[in-house]
Amino acid sequence: MNIRRILVLFLIIISIISIAGKCSKTLDVVTIKEKGEDKKINDTYTMGPVTVDDLFEYISRKEELLILDVRTAEDFKYSIIGHIKSARNIPLDELTIRYTELHEYHAVPIYLIDRTGSKSVQAQRILAAHDFNKVFVVEGGMIAWQSAGFTVVHTDDESF
After folding, report:
1. The whole model's pTM is what?
2. Domain span including residue 59
3. Structure-derived torsion over alpha carbons of residues 94, 100, 106, 108, reported in degrees to the nearest 10
4. In this structure, what CATH number is given to the domain that contains residue 101?
5. Which of 38, 103, 138, 141 could staple 117 via S-S, CB 3.0–4.6 A?
């Protein structure tokens, strides 16, 4: 191996260590019901992710939960992708101010969704910083939800 390759490998290792260090905040162990058995989850900054199939199952079982859509209000109401009927909308850029509106959901699982799942990871970090410890990112976001054939709403049928 030449010096250049060694240097690149060294920089990659340092980057990985740096990223791991930034995600070192450990959340409490959370117990959720899954298929009748307790499932313990203990992770760093992330609680999940969960698939759209998992979320659909939790909704179908009428479990106490909150679906928080962090897209802009316009995307939530008017996007061709639509939104989940029971979802509440707080845009990511307003979450640092409006997280207090979620106080009543502090003890229940919160499932974060956006268009593809990327903004949900940022929202998860914001909520974790405010001691919400049952926060899950929905893999693939609304694109995955719609692709799976699950029902979406295309208008602002529910107001929160």
Report:
1. 0.69
2. 27-147
3. -50
4. 3.40.250.10
5. 141
Tokens representing residue 69 in the block: 């859509």
Q: Which three-class secondary structure state does DSSP give residue 3?
A: helix
Q: Contact at 8 Å (CB) between 38 and 31?
A: yes
Determine if the peptide bond prior to 91 is cis (ω within 30°). Answer: no
**Element containing residue 123 per DSSP (H, E):** helix 118-129
What is the C-alpha separation between 68 and 122, in angstroms, rounded?
13
Domains of the chain: total = 1
Residue 15 maps to a domain: no
pLDDT by residue for the chain (160 residues), tens digit each? 577 776 566 566 665 555 444 433 333 333 333 333 333 333 333 477 899 999 999 999 998 999 999 999 999 999 999 999 999 999 999 999 999 999 999 989 999 999 998 899 999 999 999 999 899 999 999 999 999 999 999 875 554 4
